[in-house]
Amino acid sequence: MKRLCMERNSTTGGGLMKRNNINRVLLNDFLGTDYADYTDAFVLGQLHLEYSYLHCNPCYPRNPRLKFSYILIFFLLCFSPLHAQDPIPSCPLISKVTANCDTLRSYSQRTDTVAVPRIAFPSGFQQLGENELTDSLGILNPFWEKLRLLHAGFSTDTIRIVHIGDSHIRGRILPRTTGTLLTETFGAISYTDMGINGAFCTTFTRSDRISDIAALHPDLVILSFGTNESHNRRYNTLLHYRQMDELVRMLRDSLPNVPLLMTTPPGSYDSFRKSRRRRTYSINPRTAIAVETMRRFADDNGLAVWDMYEAVGGRQRACLNWQEAKLMRPDHVHYLPEGYVLQGELFYQALLKAYNDYVGY
Fold it and tell me: Quick one: which of 343, 308, 259, 295 has its CA closest to 132?
């Protein structure tokens, strides 16, 4: 029988040479080079314990290139960064935000509300309604978003509002009161009024007037009619509805993406001559009917509404409130400057409430 080398190695403290030879073979075989001179006791001991497993394992790599691939994969797994979850997406750039997009959905807090002033009504005002806009479909949301971006400093673009209507708008006190207050609150607001004395809504159903409105590139168009329609003693709801439909259709053809806001009239009186020198006045009963028609049209056709008539008392008290507070002119149709200022402040307050509802929901 061939005698095996069983000499003891003084360097390793008496370990058998045969075992060291086996370890050298293991290192050479596994690492692919001669590492037998490195006889660190711990490494050799560990490799010796694993030797039987490696040679009995069918996956044990004998091809040097395959061995290198396994080692490379091992190091990549050890040093590659691990993620417990997908990376958090970055916030969109402000320049990428569009007015039609509600950017508030990306944030957990909404701090863009504005202070809504309280209105000091004359002592004669009673039975007031809610001063608010009706916009169940969110027609005005693109406009509110532009206001929010302007108020937050994310946009410097001027927001353009065009207010068309009858003599209440032609007097300019009402729209300019609202426009001035909006500019003080939000900044770059252009508020243009286009009123015509004695105007019906059909007064603006002319191509040149529609072109004038479109040339201003408005972000919002406000329609204020109803007083002159309701003063016709032959007032017809179907005719009034069709006239509003014609105006709105023409505006939408020229301004397809611009929201429309309709306001109702404040209230007025009918006049009767009892003698050559004396007139008597009674509340115009057709105003309430015209207001109902306007609200129905707005609901049917996707317009927002500010019902000033209801806000100041409606059928029961609107005209009485204005008259008892001595804010109407002698003709009982038009208003003193203080009356129009109050109307402009009420409109401003209703706009702010609706804006706060948008940014605070």
Answer: 308
Report the alpha-carbon distance of residue 287 to residue 313 in Å, rounded.
13
Q: How far is CA 196 from the centre of its chain?
A: 34
Nearest to 261 by CA among 174, 351, 323: 351
Contact at 8 Å (CB) between 163 and 169?
A: yes
Tell me the β-bridge partners of 160.
190
pLDDT tens for the chain, residues 1 to 361: 444 444 444 444 444 444 445 445 444 554 444 444 444 444 444 444 444 544 545 455 555 556 666 676 666 666 555 554 444 444 444 344 444 444 444 333 456 899 999 998 998 899 999 999 999 899 999 999 999 999 999 999 999 999 999 999 999 999 999 999 999 999 999 999 999 999 999 999 999 999 999 999 999 999 999 999 998 889 999 999 999 999 999 999 999 999 999 999 999 998 887 667 778 889 999 999 999 999 999 999 999 999 999 999 999 999 999 999 999 999 999 999 999 999 999 999 999 999 999 998 7
Q: How many CB atoms lie within 10 A of CB 40?
A: 9
Instruction: Tell me which DSSP letter residue 236 carries.
Output: -
For the chain, the first-to-last Cα distance in angstroms comes to: 95
SS3 state at 335: strand
Cβ(191)–Cβ(179) under 8 Å?
yes
Question: Degrees (nearest 5) of the Cα angle 269, 275, 281?
Answer: 10
- Of 182, 100, 106, 104, residue with least CA distance to 142: 100
Q: What is the distance between the alpha carbons of residues 261 and 160, in angstroms, rounded to a whole number?
A: 14
CA distance 302 to 285: 27
**Element containing residue 28 per DSSP (H, E):** helix 17-31
Cβ burial 111-120 (10 Å sphere, 16+ → b, else e) = ebeeeeeeee
Q: Strand runs (DSSP E) across 131-273, as ranges? A: 133-134, 159-165, 189-195, 220-224, 260-263, 269-273
Residues in the chain: 361
- Give dist(CA 312, CA 320) in Å, integer: 10
Rounded CA separation 309/263 (Å): 9
